[in-house]
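Most newcomers find our protein records easier to grasp once they have seen one. Sequence and backbone structure share a record, each on its own labelled line. To make this concrete, we reproduce a full record directly below:
***
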Amino acid sequence: MLSNNIFSRLIAIVLFILYAFVPCNPDGLTLSATADNGEEQVITVEWQNNTKKAIGIPRYFVEKNENGEWTEIPFSDGFGFPDIASTYYPTEKGEITIISERVFGQRLPEGKYRITVYYDILNSDIKTGSSVLEFTL
């Protein structure tokens, strides 16, 4: 009986330590996307930091599903992510605005896409994280 009590307390301590010190929620970022096919094709991805740590500015890549295979869409020549040191704390929200003609050099055709958003996790043993969202144009 005594050993079961010690074992239960040991399990409780381990679970507490894991909860307190695991750096990230496995969900990472919550993502949602909207597309506007007006004069310019604009894809807006809204995200929220669901980690337990501050993160750096998110970056991304987009893929298109063609015949069941995901193919990465290359960025246009000269495209680059801003080299800005921004910090987003847990629960903070942000937005990525993609103007297809500027980012990819063309409008994206109708189809099934996914965006992978990756980010640096600050002050953590785990250095990066990512989240994926599928969307249709």
